[in-house]
Amino acid sequence: MGLRTLAGIWLGVSLTLVGLALWRGHPWLWISVGLWWIGTGYDAWRRFKGRRPRLWPATLIALIAIYGVGWEVTEIHPLAPFQRFDKMRPYLIALTQPDLLTYPTERQVYRIPVEVPCTHPPSPREIREEAQVWLSADCAQAGDLLTLQGEGFPAGPSLELWWVNPIGERQRILQEGRPLSLQADASGRFRTAFIAPRAVPLGFEPPPGQSQTHFLELHVVRVIGGPRPSEALLEVAEKMGETVAIALLATTFAVLIAAPLSFLAARNLMGGSLPARAIYYAMRGFFNIVRSVEPLIFGIVFVVWVGLGSFAGMLALMVHSIAALGKLFSEVIEHIDPGPVEALMATGANRLQVIRYAVVPQVVPEFVSFAVYRWDINVRMSTIIGFVGGGGIGFRLSEWIRLSAYRQVATAVIGIALVVMALDYVSAQVRRRIV
Amino acid sequence: MPLIVDRLTKIYPDGTRALHEVSFTVEDGEFVAIIGLSRAGKSTLLRCINRLIEPTSGRVIWNGIDITAASPRELRRIRRQIGMIFQQFNLVKRATVLTNVLTGRLGYVNPWLSLLGYFPPSEVQRAMQALERVGLADLADKRADELSGGQQQRVGIARALMQEPRLLLADEPVASLDPVLAHSILRYIEELNRKDGVTVLCSLHFLDLVHRYATRVIGLKDGIKVFDGRPDEIDDRRFKEIYGQEAERIGG
Amino acid sequence: MYRHRRWLQIIGALLALGIYAGSWHVVGIDLRKLVEPQAARRAQEIFTAFLTPEILVPERGIQRVEVPVRVPCESGNIPETAEVGEGPRLFLPPCASPGTQIRIRGEGFRPGSELVLRWVFAPSPQLPLGGELLAGRTRTDAAGHFELDVEIRPLLAQEGGARLQAEARWEGRWQISPALTRTMELTLQTIFLALMATTLATGVAAPLSFLAARNITARGPVGTAVYYLTRTIFNVVRSIEPLVVAAIFATWVGFGPFAGVLALTVATVVNLGKLFSEVIETIDPGPVEAITATGANTLQVIRYAVIPQITLPFLAFIIYHWDINVRISTVVGFVGGGGIGYQLKLWIDQTDYHKAGTAVWAIIAVVSAMDYVSARLRETIR
Asked: CB distance A248–C23 less than 8 Å?
């Protein structure tokens, strides 16, 4: 490394460290600044004495300081992923059982009244309909252990227990955090114990010494007919279609706009006259500025402008793509073979004729290749443009994440992965054919 | 302490028979040239001796030790005494010349310290001496890819010197170099052979080089040894046996 | 044959037309939405605000003093009293009769500021919510004094008096806007977020990439299985945008930059893993052979023949991904992943478009700078 490079690095690192120390105000950062200077001074002394340079101690100090600040600023809690693993577990479980299919069902319901709370000593309650059910107590309060047994049930269908309070709120009976589901044995009997849930509605508490009537419902759930796609699956399919459509239109419009603009940003075509150069620099600047703004940021702007929905998302992707493609296109134009251009100029063709007959034929294949590549990127982007209200799967996905609808999230994530990978493959194939 | 190659055979997984029952004995201090067409099995033969390629059958015995039966640990101890230089030099292009030379010492130094990039000062000094011997001491801190082909091969020789080898395997050491440079490289190898008494096995392309440097020639054709004798014994008939009927003798 | 192709072309064109028509319908393209008066006004408002980001704001100051005044006076005329505050002081009679004028003097106010006098009424049967009544306006002089005659209105008599409030307001020197300070802080956080994620990802991806390199791993059935498994994981995870991962991480480890770091780490691990493995697949086998021939052990061969060959290409990809990660981390805050994104969305939601403009320009500056720096660095380390 040359002395100039070393001096540049030394100055850059020194300024960074001092800046960080000023920003965070920790004494240890000032110490690291001092150690950096000592370390580099030691290295300089060694170099001066003609010994082998030794820069690693100083480098280590600088890295520790920078990463120390990074650690603090980004609020890294190495233990959080483990301590809060319970928040993640449902997602992992859901990924193995995404919400794909539902089976149409028919329910036969047995309702057993239960008084809450007990105002008399509890006695068993029996219901006789097609089959017989016994509940161990006719009154209970939240937390009581109750036993339910039955006789004369069909062996196939699954049995679910639900608790219904006086205002009709219904909750599934849980066992160890999971919905309780059981089946009658071959002789048509079953027996289960469960804990009465907390169900007294807020504001409808019974006066002291009195009780209200809740119901324990036993559902006999029979599957009638074959599997059919679940609501989430249909929704994901529809929204993925919308997602791909957003990407398709955004890319198409972007190509149509960027292709002509890119000629204005090509140095080899815009040389010469002052206005041409001014246009060149303006276009370059425009492309560079717009390119550095993520589509999602355009997304929030367009959502304010034209309202929620795919149109806003399409516009956002389009604007970013115009800039990104415009830059790539103009670079393609800058790297064309100048021979044909020269030849056509020699024939006395004007600028537009030169472009039409010498430039366009050379650039079309690469334009198409970049457009396909951009489409690929836009499909990925359009899966998330909905996070800011730009339509597509993202909108639904962000809602499901907020509502902790794990299985639906899993369905959406799997849908995205499949579509994106498929289009990735297609676009790679198309690009290989073209170039 | 001769090198005994006994019915060495190598058949590659795709069925190519690169060596077929090749046997010969090399005495200490010999300069053996191995000649033959490309793909005649020269590289395979050299690489089977230090087991960079596992032979299919046959034995290689050196210093009374059966290399072909050595455990990985023993094999490394044997390899560190066998220097090797290559047609493509096989330097680490992005490392410095000095580091490249020091890697020749990896079989001797503390393996754990070497992983940290540490070599004892005595080894660094040895490396500088090796570089001095090939006339490159002033380029020690350059990156290997900044050197010319001839210089790179001299670094390759310095790397082999670091091993203090008793045997040097040279696989087409000059085939990628200008003919003018070829002599300078081979003179270093000759010096090793004459002054340090290192046994040399060197595959070569040009017969004039063989005549100039080798004390013995082994000819290979399609993996079979077809000639073993002194360089001046190669007449037109022998030449056509080794190189095929269409070959024309030039030079030498 | 030709006819056959012609038909295929027609069918293809019709299919494309159908796809575009369907897409047009699904996306709900309505160009009128762009120019509707209300929409156009909003757009104009946003863009003009973006072009005038909030960078400097005048320092605003306010001083307030309140003194009770009884109306009417209970007993005769009482001399002027001084109400002494910390800084500004008011001089006025403690009571007054309706219909008269009292003279109010002030001292110690900020020189040359706008001064408003008003009566502040406490809640009463007639005024259940209390109330305010403007008493007069003036400016303080160069010494911070003012003098004003104030009329005692009948309402004051009806309420039995009120508190007289003197308020001095001024706009001072221009100073760096709090929005700019906040933006700068969050921009730095954004850069660090990308740095931490890239570093963590490198630590994970570098060893993993050896598993996904055909020439290292794909040997024997177990190796081949590991190779394909790693490749598949890389490809599947790569298809999920980091923002989706960030949204899930935000519920896992809580909102904040750490969730963003983890999400970007995951995305970067798979991208770098793929690129790294391709680097490893294309190393020159010559040095490996040469160093094996010196009697070096496997670890030494990796250290001296493989690592020197891959370090610089790895470094180039790492810098490139730091650049990409800075871009992504500008928006990862939209889903609770820290960085400038969250604040930007907040400002836009609050229609604080000037402040949002500050954030947008900061993003443009930092992304362009990273773009340039990363390109230059990658050029030098080749």
From this structure: yes
Please report residues of C whose CB lies closer than 8 A to that of A304.
42-43, 46, 348
- Residue ending a domain, choose from C153, C176, C199: C176
Contact C196 A71 (CB under 8 A): yes
| Residue A166 contacts residue A213 (beta carbons within 8 Å) | yes
Domains of chain B: 29-42+73-243 (3.40.50.300)
Q: Give the domain CATH number at C354.
A: 1.10.3720.10
Distance from the Cα of C283 to chain A's closest Cα (Å) equals: 24
Provide the CATH number for the domain around residue C73: 2.60.40
**Domain tally for chain C?**
2
Asked if the C-beta of B214 comes within 8 angstroms of chain C's C-beta atoms, the answer is no
Q: Which of A288, A414, A258, A272 is nearest to A354 (CA)?
A: A272
| For testing contact with chain A, the best of C17, C24, C26 (most A CBs within 10 A) | C26
For residue C146, give its domain range: 60-176
Which among A70, A301, A387 is the nearest to C195, CB-wise? A70
Can you tell me the distance from the alpha carbon of C104 to that of C100, in angstroms, rounded to the nearest whole number?
13
- Give the residue on C whose Cα is nearest the Cα of A405: C248
Pairing, β A170-172 against β A228-229: unpaired
Q: Express each pLDDT in C6-16 by its tens digit.
A: 888 899 999 99
What residue has token string 């060694």?
A46
Q: Which of residues 77-96 of A touch C (CB under 8 A)?
A: 77, 80-81, 84-85, 87-88, 91
pTM, rounded to two decimals: 0.78
> Which residues span the domain enclosing A298?
231-434
Backbone torsions φ then ψ of C79, nearest 5 degrees = -60, 160
Residues of chain C with pLDDT under 70: 1-3, 75-86
Q: How far apart are CA C72 and CA C156, in angstroms?
A: 8
Hey, is A108 helix, strand or coil? Answer: strand
Assess whether A253 and A375 both reside in one domain. Answer: yes
Beta carbons within 8 Å of C276's beta carbon, 6+ residues apart: C205, C206, C209, C212, C310, C314, C317
How much is the pLDDT for C106?
Answer: 87
Contact A383 C244 (CB under 8 A): yes
| ipTM, two decimals | 0.86
Q: What is the pLDDT of residues C25-66, one digit of tens each?
A: 999 888 888 888 988 998 999 999 999 998 888 877 788 888
Count of CB atoms situated within 10 Å of the CB of A391 = 28
Q: Which residue in the set B84, B95, B111 is minimally distant from C293, CB to CB? A: B84
